[in-house]
Amino acid sequence: MLVLLFIFTAFHLIVGTASLGLAMRLFTPREREHWRSKPALLVAQIMCWVYPVLAFACASIAWRGFNAGHDGAFPLLLAPILWLIVMGLVFAIVDFAEDGILGNARSNRPQ
Predict the structure, then answer these.
(1) Of the four, 8, 22, 44, 90, which is 20 to 30 A from 98 by CA?
(2) If pLDDT is split at 50, 70 and 90, which confidence band does 37 have?
(3) Three-class SS of residue 106?
(4) What is the mean pLDDT of residues 41-61?
């Protein structure tokens, strides 16, 4: 159990840091002009800002629970991954609802 806690905590640390970097980049005007779909941009921003907070909170509670001897520590570390899956589905739905094509929310060239 200890090894799984370390592995998932390291995963959340790495992905959370990358998510914060992407969230900061999504606020730049240069990046915003690439997005065709403003609702998809909003979903991406929500996903990127909430994930690090959720991962930190869940990892902290999981480690406290593990140190106290509770058995529910590991499912808490899976909650942020479930957040990424759900928000990925929401992003795909919003992207498809905008124009009927998946993967068309962001262009390589600014409009």
Answers:
(1) 22
(2) confident
(3) strand
(4) 94
